[in-house]
Design brief:
The chain is built from 3 helices and 24 strands. The chain is α/β, with parallel strands linked by helices.
């Protein structure tokens, strides 16, 4: 990962704590946070309040920093990613130094890879994703934009997770499976068949919604 000098966090979800730690380990300076609404406090979660987004835009030089979104929930994170992209912000890519990533894997900006993650050969991660603690992406896995792969989840070789889907904590997806858009796979589930868009699955590919 190319060194980043300065980062600004958008939002103040609990995900910010992970962002702070990864930035510290990579010697990346966090300038503070911005939000889409006015927040009165000067500091929160140890970060300086840089103000409301529109006001901040008028007074900032966007060439001097990159943005990372501090929101864990997929659809909300997607909403703000697209908003900030439209306003021509640059996005950071944060990778924990205690992760193992193949030289042939591809990770787009806006995404975060947490501690203990393994990403194997020819896997690809889209924009604005969270690949969380101790998860495994096998060879040729494709994770599309705005997804969250939760701690301990394992995705088998050649599988694909489409936009804005969540693979729950400790879930397993076997090889060559296609998971649709806006799908939630429950914690501890095992997925052995393709999953349709806009659905929730638990257990052994059992649909509940």
């Amino acid at each position: 990962m190319a060194p980043l000098k300065k980062v600004i966090v958008f939002g103040l979800g609990s995900h910010v704590k992970i962002i702070k730690e990864i930035c510290e380990l990579n010697n990346i300076k966090i300038l503070g946070f911005i939000s889409d609404k006015k927040i009165k406090v000067k500091k929160k979660n140890g970060l300086k309040n840089l103000g409301e987004l529109n006001k901040f835009l008028k007074n900032s030089n966007q060439k001097n920093f990159s943005i990372i979104i501090g929101i864990g929930e997929n659809l909300l994170r997607k909403k703000y990613f697209l908003l900030l992209k439209k306003k021509k912000f640059k996005f950071a890519k944060l990778i924990h130094p205690n992760s193992q990533i193949s030289k042939t894997a591809r990770i787009q900006v806006g995404s975060l890879v947490n501690s203990g993650v393994t990403i194997n050969a020819n896997a690809s991660i889209g924009y604005n994703c969270i690949i969380n603690t101790n998860s495994l992406l096998e060879h040729d896995v494709k994770i599309k934009d705005h997804c969250h792969i939760c701690p301990g989840a394992k995705i088998g070789g050649g599988s694909e997770v489409q936009q804005s889907s969540l693979i729950g904590l400790g879930a397993n997806v076997i090889d060559k499976i296609k998971i649709g858009k806006n799908v939630t796979v429950g914690a501890g589930s095992t997925i052995f068949k393709n999953l349709k868009h806009n659905s929730t699955y638990i257990g052994y590919s059992k649909k509940i919604k």
